[in-house]
Amino acid sequence: MVLLPGVMCDAGLWQEMVADLAGYGPLIYGDLSRDASLEEMAARCLSQAPERFTLVGFSMGGFVAREMIRQAPERVQRLILIATSSQQDSPQTRAVKVATAKSLSGSQGAFHGPGQKAIALSLSADHASDPGLQTQIRQMSLRMGKEAYCRQLLMDRHSDTHLLNQISCPTLVIAAAGDRMRSLEESQVMYRLIPDATLEIIDDSGHMLPLEQPASLTRCICRWLSDTPG
After folding, report:
1. Which pLDDT band holds residue 225 (cuts at 50, 70, 90)?
2. What is the DSSP annotation of 147-211?
3. In angstroms, rounded to a whole number, what is the distance separating the alpha carbons of residues 20 and 127?
4. What local confidence, expressed as pLDDT, does residue 73 receive?
5. What topology is assigned to 2-89+153-227 in CATH?
6. How far, CA to CA in Å, does 3 sit from each of 6, 70, 114, 175, 198?
7. Is 0.85 surpassed by the pTM of this model?
8. Burial status of residue 190 (CB atoms within 10 A of its CB: 0-12, 13-18, 19 or more)
9. Is 64 helix (H, G, I), strand (E, B) or coil?
């Protein structure tokens, strides 16, 4: 099983889920910190993956996962997309990301990770002020570093909605009911357009599903894997 994280996340994203997911085979953590494009990220992850595997993509990792399928469709047995989208950034979102990256690149001070507002927005309204979750997110970003953050902010995410119908493997689309970064409609679009897709919605969580509701997310994934031959 290949696990792909989101922006400024590393293997720590999955730490509460590892014990259960490991029962479905060795876990391989995709490194999305070193490349500047989806295509390069996908190629690197494919070079480190086994010949056939289940692919899990969270947030930005969902974009990379679908690019991996485009590059090597015969290698992906099952696909799981968590809190992600097939839509490109709006011009406003793109402008904010570019401005943030330029500001960080020109800064000579220590890198402190995403701002407090950005971290809070990635969590549900109920979890936004949770100090433990805030610390986990910030620690991952500090391990990743400023250069990786800037690369990820500047990376183009082209819409691949028109290509979703080409995904032939069984696919599980998982959305968070309290996600303030990705809408339920974005998950529903993927569910409707991917031929062999299942949609699950997990309550009491914002965008950071693997951290906010790891037990519920793990149960959802394991149930689907058990019912879906690889």
Report:
1. very high
2. HHHHHHHH------GGGGGG--S-EEEEEETT-SSS-HHHHHHHHHHSTTEEEEEESS--S-HHH
3. 24
4. 98
5. Rossmann fold (3.40.50)
6. 10, 17, 22, 17, 19
7. yes
8. buried
9. helix
